[in-house]
Design a protein that fits this description.
The chain has 174 residues and is of the alpha+beta class. It has 3 helices and 11 strands. The longest helix is centred in the C-terminal third of the chain and has 16 residues.
């Protein structure tokens, strides 16, 4: 396994591996793991989405808050940091109702990345968010949407996955 450090790429590293059965060279992206969080209001009628430009689709999209796990961070501390930065809510404002514990493979055919998935719920619908703390490369807006509208707003996999996971959890708990 070999990882190429290409100076022009800050976010991704290109890797090359050898298939043990065929000896063919296989290329992949070596990428840091990440978290994503479906944020529900307390009454569980709305979901908070962020809207930002995504270069991979050359457009603005709605998606759940998410972010890269920095070196030395745990998935949980990344959740707390990203939620505070992107939504204005602090860990005291919400409860975790689902924690994937291990990351889900994003696309094992081309990347090493795993996403740790969380579903969180505000402790009260009266809690107001603080000001966002965005990185210089981030420009995003947040907006609450009724749960039933979310599938019509995005094709983002982590958002749709989290929403469907939440719906399954609700069915199973009845």
């Amino acid at each position: 396994m070999k990882v190429l450090d290409i100076k022009e790429l800050n976010f991704l590293k290109v890797g090359v591996d050898i298939d043990p059965l065929t000896n063919h060279k296989l290329e992949y992206l070596e990428k840091q793991n990440a978290i994503s969080a479906l944020l529900l209001n307390h009454s569980e009628t709305k979901i908070l989405l962020v809207n930002q430009y995504r270069a991979g689709v050359h457009n603005f999209i709605y998606e759940v808050p998410a972010g890269i796990i920095e070196v030395g961070e745990s998935p949980l501390s990344t959740l707390e940091r990203e939620i505070r930065e992107e939504t204005g809510y602090s860990k005291e404002d919400y409860d975790i109702i689902y924690d994937s514990k291990t990351g889900f493979l994003v696309s094992p055919g081309y990347t090493s990345e795993k996403i740790y998935t969380y579903i969180i719920k505000l402790k009260s619908d009266d809690i107001l968010p603080k000001e966002l703390i965005l990185d210089e490369t981030e420009a995003l807006e947040t907006r609450w949407f009724p749960i039933e509208d979310v599938p019509k707003l995005t094709l983002d996999m982590k958002t749709i996955f989290s929403l469907n996971l939440y719906k399954i959890m609700n069915k199973l708990s009845r």
